[in-house]
Model the fold of this input.
Amino acid sequence: MSSLPMSPMMGQMMSQPLLISNILEFAARHYGSSEIVSRRVEGDMHRYTYRECHQRARRLANALHGLGVRMGDRVATLAWNGYRHLEAYYAVSGSGAVLHTINPRLHPEQVAYIMNHAEDQYLLFDLTFLPVAEAIAAHCKTTKGFILMCDRERMPAESKIPNLLCYEDLINSHSDDYAWPQFDENSAATLCYTSGTTGNPKGALYSHRSTVLHAYGSAMPNALNVSSRDTVMPVVPMFHVNAWGLPYSVPLSGAKLVFPGAALDGKSVYELFENEGVTFSAGVPTVWLGLINYATQNQLKFSTFRRTVIGGSACPPAMMNTLIDDFGVEVVHAWGMTEMSPLGTTCTLMAKHLELDREGQRKILQKQGHAVYGVDMKIVDDDGKELPWDGVGYGHLLVRGPWIIAKYYKDEGGDVLQDGWFPTGDVATIDPDGYMQITDRSKDVIKSGGEWIGTIDLENIAMAHPAVLQAACIGVAHPKWDERPLLVVVLRAGQQVSREELLRFFDGKIAKWWLPDDVVFTDALPVGGTGKIQKNKLRDQYKEHKLPTV
Done:
């Protein structure tokens, strides 16, 4: 018998590290004339090309080196989606430093905490956030300087910020003669903190390798399907999990890139879509709600917008139906999280589904979908036993893959993995074809009489009622059943519906014991910095709510 070799035969291919700088270098060389268009916070429009972006990114890399930024140093940003922010994405990571994007919607105390925890050396920020920078400057212990992303004429005459520098002065005073350094692809590239609703945020530290692989995977046809024929506008902020990787996957594909800046209202988004010929966009449901309302109220259609990816929270079926049926926009439901870079699944139809009727296809499209190659997933019960993929039984969703974190920055939270799998905190089902559907967050699921009630289904049914604009379902204490569902509803302008009418709307759509015990109407739901409804605040607000007795 022949014995197996002690080691495999090695391939004879070039060995080149997967580095973020390669993406922009590729875009500049092979799609150099493709446009990057930005609505600036100054109010005007800015246009240039990938070739020019690459030149300015190299200038910025030289400038940061001149300021003493070295390999592994953290450089933070407080900025909207725009060309200067994109330059920072590549200049910081490409030079071997670590880009730390910060959510400016956080309280200044949280921003200061995150900057101190990350030990940021410099902060680059937009004019919009000058008050935030002034509020935190004295509390940032490691920060050597603050770089205002504007030109000299817009710099403040006086400021409370020490060592305040002008971004354009730095760009103009340095050469683009810069060779991107080559280093280990497993080196840290970017740092994103979770938007956790309890405790301090924790950092997810991405590598160059994980980021480039994520860009490859997310651009695939079954994922975001980005190509050089597209004009892409990331509405999801660049401070929210790196805008779902679009600042990498779009240049990698050579597509035109459009940045909306701070104007994310329905009118501004619509006008930019039309003026720039946007074909594809991505964002959370609350953004599309504003866009749909503006277009509907003004009897408008889209001339080029044909596809959107919706994630961050579940896309209500009513919203999906409106976009597809009324506006001819393909909706790709997606799911992921900060700890996953963030893309985990996207929902597109298989060939065998094309023969299904409209309702059959929509039931599939309302799921979060198939895992993107690079992500594996499973569902387990409370004891960690893997559950079957039957589309019925639901359990805790676990994932693993090359762009999923192994631990949090500085080992916050200790060992977070379960036998090599990351617990997402979601409760889900997986059907025999591999389509995953989130039924709830583990912390949001309602436990009634020992059984689980998923809140997402209840919210989706409520929002299908023509009078309902938004809905959130939470568990409220019950003396017999432990918890029962309470529905919190925001009505559309000029619309009315009673508690009894809305509850009757659920008839035949759910098991009777899932029916909410009560409905309360409110003017607005609390929304966090990433556009998600903050159910923890609703639970605090309604923890003393007395449910009707039958």
Q: What stands out?
A: The chain has 16 helices and 25 strands. The first strand starts at residue 35 and ends at 39. The CA atoms of residues 476 and 542 lie 7 Å apart.
